[in-house]
Amino acid sequence: MSALVGLFDSGLGGLTVLRRLQERYPHSSCLYLGDTARVPYGQRSVADIRSIAAEVVAWLRHQQVGVLVMACNTSNALALDVAVAEAGVPVVGLIDSVAADLNSECVGVLATPATAASGAYRRAIHACRPHTSVLEVGCPTFVPLIEAGDLQAPALIEEAKAYVEPLLVAGVDTVVLGCTHYPMLRPLLTALLPPHVRLVDPAESAVRRLGPLLASMGGMPEGELAAVEVVSPAERTRVCVSGSAEAFADGASRWLGYRPAVERVDLRSVGQAF
């Protein structure tokens, strides 16, 4: 089985997952797909999201990925079954991964409207901890504002205050960043929340779950990395988009710490294998 890790999101957000993966498993080869022609997913209908997921996963399957990471909470919430049926390889989701790791009494989830409305986080957390209180808050303006690039914009700060308010009223002890764009807001959200409230990025849990899968595909366990020469992230990662490659490369620099080479692809074709 190929050790190529496939990841997808509607835009830049999934790069937070890719970066976590690159940091933890520096030997891994990755294929990242940003479906930027249809960003954001979070305000689309359930039918649209499921149809898009089927198309995206089919394209990744044809690129011969050996494991698929759903680096998009909205697709994870509404189309995990579609991805599992279409991928033909193991699928790692964000929601179930983080739910299994939480040890909290009152959890707030900041997410896209589609993810929040689905109740996916509530169900996953209650499956692990039935008595935990879960409050999911839809944040419709976060993704467009984050993609615009100004994380100090007054409009973004005001929206963040409004989204956090019900979590403060509920007395949450943990806030899950339920969209892969939202780790970019960690400094802002930290400033708005009491010091005892823990911010959790589901990418950390999902990336940890990849370890055994990578090992089973011939990947190298973390403990053996000292014996190998690690190539740069740019050399071992292929980045593709369905929209503008140039715009994505510009935006990706601040998320990855380097400017990736980006290629535009047609998701209706099988493309070339990595």
Question: Can you walk me through this structure?
Answer:
By secondary structure, the chain is an alpha/beta fold. The protein folds into 2 domains: 5-93 and 204-264, 3-Layer(aba) Sandwich (Rossmann fold), CATH 3.40.50; 96-201, Rossmann fold, CATH 3.40.50.1860. Helices cover 46% and strands 16% of the residues. It is built from 12 helices and 10 strands. The strands form 2 sheets. Strands 4-3-1-2-9-10 form a 6-stranded parallel sheet, with helices on both faces. Strands 6-5-7-8 form a 4-stranded parallel sheet, sandwiched between helices. Helix 1 crosses helix 10 (202-216), helix 4 (94-101) packs parallel to helix 6 and helix 4 packs across helix 10 (202-216). The longest helix is centred in the N-terminal third of the chain and has 17 residues, at 46-62. 45% of the residues are buried. Mean pLDDT is 93; it is low at 223-227.
